[in-house]
Design a protein that fits this description.
By secondary structure, the chain is an alpha/beta fold. The chain contains eight helices and seven strands, in the order βαβαββαβββααααα. It is about 40% helix and about 15% strand. The strands form two sheets. The protein has a five-stranded parallel beta sheet, with helices on both faces. The protein is elongated, with a radius of gyration of 21 Å.
């Protein structure tokens, strides 16, 4: 096996990727592939799906012209220039064979055996611009999902507006002609609990810094 794709016990480096317009190739058209594609569509990726067997939901997305679909067996050249590759066929041996055929600088996720790829997708919780990722490095995806479910209670929908407020404040504060220490003071101030809970306080602070 190409060691470039063996993660094994190695540490995983967590990143957030901007996928809008990026070429993403998914090998497979079953339940796992469908779930991956559903998430990728939210990120506005440029998605190509290749599989002789395609789920109804994937076919529906093709009808809507949201993705490209090729109903045939996958071959290594299908992944040329792909920014991300998901190998999610129902044939574990084929997934591993395809992973070995790809160059080591290509980002590859193997659904049937995460150790054959070089990245994995964590369980995610999203509240607007807030994104929380939970990973067990492949040890237990079920545990990662349970933790995400617990966090859904902690991070309620109120965080959507709160994080939007933080983003607005940061952009305004960074543009102001005041000293660095003052900027840091304001940036620390707005993460206090009172700003999260009170919209009126948020509006007052935004009005205050806009006048600076």
């Amino acid at each position: 096996m190409n060691k470039s794709y063996q993660t094994g016990e190695a540490n995983m480096y967590s990143v957030s990727l901007h996928l809008k317009g990026k070429k993403v190739v998914v090998a497979g058209g079953g339940k796992i592939a469908t779930r991956k594609i559903r998430s990728l569509l939210k990120e506005e990726a440029n998605i190509t799906v290749i599989s002789p067997h395609i789920s109804e939901e994937i076919l529906h997305w093709r009808t809507e012209k949201r993705i490209k679909v090729y109903e045939r067996e996958v071959i290594p050249s299908d992944f040329k220039d792909a920014f991300l590759t998901f190998l999610a066929t129902n044939d574990e041996a084929l997934n591993e064979k395809l992973a070995r055929s790809l160059p080591p600088n290509q980002l590859v996720s193997v659904a049937s055996n995460y150790e054959c790829g070089n990245f994995s997708v964590p369980a995610q919780l999203k509240r607007g611009k807030l994104s929380v990722a939970i990973s067990t490095s492949g040890a237990s995806p079920s545990l990662a999902k349970e933790i995400r479910n617990d966090l859904e209670i902690l991070f309620s929908d109120e965080y959507i507006q709160y994080v939007e407020f933080l983003d607005q404040c940061r952009k305004i504060i960074k543009s102001l002609e005041v000293d660095h220490a003052q900027k840091e003071t304001w940036l620390k101030l707005i993460v206090e609990e009172r700003f999260k809970n009170e919209q009126e306080i948020r509006e007052e602070f935004l009005a205050y810094i806009k006048q600076k």
